[in-house]
Amino acid sequence: MVGPASGPVATQDQQAPRTLEDLYREHRMRFVRLAVLLVDDPATAEDVVQEAFTGLHRHWGRLRDEHAALGYLRTAVVNGSRSVLRRRRTAREYTPPHTADARSAESLAMLSAEHQAVVSALGKLPRRQREVLVLRYYGGLSEAEIAEATGISKGTVKSTASRGLEAIGKLVGGS
């Protein structure tokens, strides 16, 4: 049987009904130690366990008994720890894109003077103009492909490219 707010209800010959607070007080540290062994960080382990108990609270009314609650918590802590480890691995493997201003001296020396002027001018353009021109002339994409990649209309791609080329012409011609 399930009680209205207190969770599983005991029969006459059983002990008093257990509450979520009872389980938290009695088992939290055991689950924190488990999570610390999995994620190797006490603060993160505390967060994982807290999330597990929050999930248990959402499902408290549907639990069969205390053993089901402990099994739920154990599974939630292991799955939460796996998620933390996956996010860490993803963050470690992430390589941020290069910025337009982060050109090495060697790469600039290998470019012709004209190419250097164009690359320098590209770095001075607004972000959208730079994206459209790079995708068109360095990436070789069509206007439709650029529109899809950037989330702007095909007409906006045309006008942005036109304004960008005009700006580059002024920047390169003026220097």
TrEMBL record:
<keyword id="KW-0238">DNA-binding</keyword>
<dbReference type="InterPro" id="IPR013324">
    <property type="entry name" value="RNA_pol_sigma_r3/r4-like"/>
</dbReference>
<feature type="domain" description="RNA polymerase sigma-70 region 2">
    <location>
        <begin position="23"/>
        <end position="89"/>
    </location>
</feature>
<dbReference type="InterPro" id="IPR036388">
    <property type="entry name" value="WH-like_DNA-bd_sf"/>
</dbReference>
<protein>
    <submittedName>
        <fullName>SigE family RNA polymerase sigma factor</fullName>
    </submittedName>
</protein>
<dbReference type="Pfam" id="PF04542">
    <property type="entry name" value="Sigma70_r2"/>
</dbReference>
<comment type="similarity">
    <text>Belongs to the sigma-70 factor family. ECF subfamily.</text>
</comment>
<dbReference type="InterPro" id="IPR014284">
    <property type="entry name" value="RNA_pol_sigma-70_dom"/>
</dbReference>
<feature type="domain" description="RNA polymerase sigma factor 70 region 4 type 2">
    <location>
        <begin position="116"/>
        <end position="167"/>
    </location>
</feature>
<dbReference type="InterPro" id="IPR013249">
    <property type="entry name" value="RNA_pol_sigma70_r4_t2"/>
</dbReference>
<dbReference type="Pfam" id="PF08281">
    <property type="entry name" value="Sigma70_r4_2"/>
</dbReference>
<dbReference type="InterPro" id="IPR014325">
    <property type="entry name" value="RNA_pol_sigma-E_actinobac"/>
</dbReference>
<keyword id="KW-0804">Transcription</keyword>
<keyword id="KW-0731">Sigma factor</keyword>
<keyword id="KW-0805">Transcription regulation</keyword>
<dbReference type="InterPro" id="IPR007627">
    <property type="entry name" value="RNA_pol_sigma70_r2"/>
</dbReference>
<dbReference type="InterPro" id="IPR039425">
    <property type="entry name" value="RNA_pol_sigma-70-like"/>
</dbReference>
<dbReference type="InterPro" id="IPR013325">
    <property type="entry name" value="RNA_pol_sigma_r2"/>
</dbReference>
